[in-house]
Design goal:
Strand content: 5-15%
Strand order of the largest sheet: 1-2-3-4
Distance between the termini: 75 Å
Order of helices and strands: HHHEEEEH
Radius of gyration: 31 Å
Number of strands: 4
Number of helices: 4
Shape: elongated
Helix content: 40-55%
């Protein structure tokens, strides 16, 4: 229990909260007295083990950013036109076909296991053609007129 109180005091000190060491010691004793009143012996043992687990979690490196890419569901082979590898992956919105640069979502009526290379190449070609479409750059917006 003293370790928990000391860790709280160390956390305050690390955050830059300063005070007289005797005040921290008094605060630790108050925390310990309150914990002793509230906890039974079983709770004390459990709290110490949870404290050790918490320290282990805090010592572990943080994982931030994207998750690791999922492995492909199926490797269809290489695209005869580009020579790139064509694979089926499971994405956020369902299965899709990719060659590394172009992605094409599979229609809902298609099963990924039944897809062949030529069908996948056709889907990728349509997706690449669609990618070029769009609104494009029109005239710039006119500024406000003073009047």
């Amino acid at each position: 229990m003293r370790d928990i109180a000391r860790a709280v005091a160390d956390a305050y000190t690390a955050r830059g909260l300063t005070g007289h060491p005797l005040l921290w010691e008094r605060k630790m004793l108050e925390l310990l007295a309150g914990l002793d009143r509230l906890l039974t012996e079983d709770d004390r043992v459990r709290a110490e083990s949870l404290y050790e687990e918490a320290l282990a979690l805090l010592a572990a490196p943080k994982t931030r950013g994207r998750r690791a890419p999922a492995p492909p569901l199926k490797d269809l082979g290489t695209d005869p036109l580009t020579g790139r590898s064509v694979v089926i992956k499971d994405g956020r919105f369902g299965p899709y076909v990719t060659d590394g640069s172009t992605n094409a979502t599979l229609p809902k009526s298609w099963e990924p296991d039944d897809l062949e290379v030529d069908q996948a190449v056709e889907l990728l070609a349509r997706a690449a053609k669609r990618k070029g479409r769009g609104r494009g750059r029109g005239k710039p917006a006119r500024g406000r007129r003073r009047g």
